Hints:
The chain is 0% helix and 52% strand. The protein is mostly beta strands.
Amino acid sequence: xxxxxxxxxxxxxxxxxxxxxxxxxxxxxxxxxxxxxxxxxxxxxxxxxxxxxxxxxxxxxxxxxxxxxxxxxxxxxxxxxxxxxxxxxxxxxxxxxxxxxxxxxxxxxxxxxxxxxxxxxxxxxxxxxxxxxxxxxxxxxxxxxxxxxxxxxxxxxxxxxxxxxxxxxxxxxxxxxxxxxxxxxxxxxxxxxxxxxxxxxxxxxx
Length: 206
């Protein structure tokens, strides 16, 4: 099943498996993929799925354009590994995936005093740079963040919480100003994770 992996400045923020015939992307909240950034038009582009693994992208007359390999796209078939550029966002296309189900955000369940479960979304909020304020959901059982060759960490969702561990770090990641060792570290609400020059706030949002 084809997959789209969206990143900003090398940090993965969204992952989506194409299951519908038409998957829309844009700034407006009625899109399937919402990128809340002024460089993105309200209805920017659409992904069309044919069969199980053939996908096309079509620009919907966006203001700033949709690019692949530095060239503006009107409509074309997507090939394995191609990267789509929309403003500062980069969307990598993968034609095949072992994932059989749909995409859903990772959530952790909390229970009120009356026994009613409450769902909390685990996210990172970028604190600095051009992407300050951007919220990145922890979307999988194991989600990677960072820039390959510079600093990459894995955030894993376990029964007792979320853990962070370095994967590839020429620049050592820090948590609340302290270097992260080889062993996974349990994340707490409002922890600050720093990857190279990017600072991110860990939050559990209901």
